[in-house]
Amino acid sequence: MSPASEHKTTAQAAQKRKRKPGSEAKRKKATVAQERSHSSSEAPSDGESDLLDGQTVDCDLEFYDPSTRDETGLRDLLRPLLDGADLDLDELVTTLIQQATVGTVIKTAEDEDPLGLISVLNLETHRQLQCLRQIRAFLQRGCSDEIQISRLEEAWGQARTGLVVSERVYNCPPQLAPPLQQALFDEIQWAVEDEPSKAVQDSFRFDQYVMITRAFVTSSAALQPTNKPGKKKKKAGKVLADVVYMRPEDEYYHKHCSWSFAFAVPNRPAGYEDLDQVRLCMLLTSAQVAAARSELDRVVGNMAAGI
């Protein structure tokens, strides 16, 4: 379940069309009734929640390619990514902008600040980046399970592993989740088909994805690492029931993932009574991503696919 799912939002169809690499054109806009957006991807405080009660505004949210005009806004959006730990934001943002073929920002207009971002970086291609080494170290420090650390290291070192970078302001409409996921994975496929060199095409041939997100837990059980359902399926189900997801897609990715681990976020109030904020790291194969997206589309609906 997701706190965002409680928001009163409506969305009209937004059909995404295929584009060639380098094209400035993006998808058609999605018109939504949206509660006032926060300038942070963190959950609101109790006072902010009170102020938001019953307040809605109509606005158009559009998908764009990341560009240099988004630099400041993307730095602000991604600043909470490692919860105050060292992160070379300039390097990360520059890399995301330079990779124009794959990546989407959400804005109300082209010259406005980004309200959300989704992209993916090949961990082998960009292995020299300081920002990726910092993200890796952040996850290693947070995980207390040696088996999960070993699995993270194995996945991080493989050539066809992608790191999904996804942040949105707290109250983006949940109906945006399926089109955003479709935007990312469609563009990955198009890059494999359309990029001018085989080397660049191959850099987008992902077998698996590392995903990092923020969630809330209602008990310490949710902090236990999970594995792909098998003999431990019953236990894993209880762990899932103890997690409250900020974004709709995270619930389905967590449900279908190969493994996951979570760790407490220090000095980050949840903004919700009786909930603790955690960081959640997951690994999904391409097939698991497809299964999770299919379930997300069925439950939430997908404007871009007419579902």
From TrEMBL:
GO terms for cellular component: nucleus. Residues 15-30 have a biased composition (Basic residues). It comes from the Eukaryota. Residues 1-53 are annotated as: Disordered. PANTHER family: BRCA2 AND CDKN1A INTERACTING PROTEIN, BRCA2 AND CDKN1A-INTERACTING PROTEIN. Belongs to the BCP1 family. This is Protein BCCIP homolog.
